[in-house]
Design brief:
The chain is of the alpha/beta class. It has ten helices and seven strands. It has two domains: 3-106 and 226-234, 3-Layer(aba) Sandwich (Rossmann fold), CATH 3.40.50.1860; 107-222, 3-Layer(aba) Sandwich (Rossmann fold), CATH 3.40.50. The strands form two sheets. It has a four-stranded parallel beta sheet. The relative contact order is 0.16.
Length: 235
């Protein structure tokens, strides 16, 4: 089996613009792009035209580009397909219908199962890159009682939020992500002391998952949690 067809996790990437040298910096620890995160090979394909701003707000015209990139990943050996933006869940159905491997585009797919891990009096906090665009249509919950147990908080306006909108974005500031996410968690817990679990929508947040677990003393799930499950099911 050649390296091009080695079983791998395939990650659909957003456009980043022209990158300064090195063009492909080493993935950070706990990143979805770092094979060490999964002890499993990772390959990626950029989705043409998929920039942070139009993926976050929702652009249906991107569907064909997501499908094309997913098919390229499968041709290269991907046995699971994911993405580096949780808002890509809008294209979950189309991508899953286009390939013959498991597709897990967003950690938001975990919500129905995670609700059942907790007592019915507990809530789940969804931490997102931009709460103004993380609406009910992305949550996959049809039961109003289940939806009432979800609280959403975002880091819009923070340093990482601004950095990701630049073309190209600067190097990831992990300390800034931790600061913004920790502050968001603290705000949500004051308003909703029933929170019993945290779910990170943003695929950049796994970089600080360990720190937020220590600070919050709460379980934290993210896209790498879901990818590990999907890989284990087929590898």
């Amino acid at each position: 089996m050649t390296s091009q067809t080695q079983p791998s996790l395939g990650v659909l990437l957003l456009e980043r613009g022209l990158q300064p040298a090195p063009a492909h910096p080493r993935p950070l620890p706990n990143s979805i792009l770092n094979p060490a995160t999964f002890d499993f090979p990772v390959i990626s394909e950029t989705v043409e035209g998929a920039w942070v701003e139009n993926v976050v707000r929702g652009d249906p015209s991107l569907e064909s580009a997501y499908v094309a990139a997913a098919r390229r990943l499968v041709d290269r050996g991907a046995i699971v397909i994911s993405s580096n933006c949780g808002f890509s869940v809008r294209h979950q159905t189309a991508v899953a219908a286009s390939v013959n491997v498991p597709v897990v585009m967003s950690s938001l797919l975990l919500l129905p199962a995670l609700l059942r891990q907790l007592p019915p009096t507990n809530k789940i906090a969804v931490l997102t890159y931009d709460s103004t665009h993380c609406g009910d249509d992305l949550l996959g919950l049809n039961d109003p009682a289940e939806r009432a147990r979800i609280v959403i908080g975002g880091i819009e306006g923070g340093k990482f939020w601004h950095d990701e909108l630049k073309r190209p974005p600067p190097s990831v500031d992990v300390a800034a992500i931790e600061k913004d996410v920790a502050a968001c968690v603290a705000r949500l817990r004051v308003a909703h002391p029933e929170i019993g679990l945290l779910l990170f929508e943003c695929a950049g947040f796994p970089l600080v998952a360990a720190a937020i677990r220590r600070i919050s003393k709460l379980p934290v799930y993210d896209i790498t949690s879901l990818c590990r499950l999907a890989i284990a099911s087929v590898a």
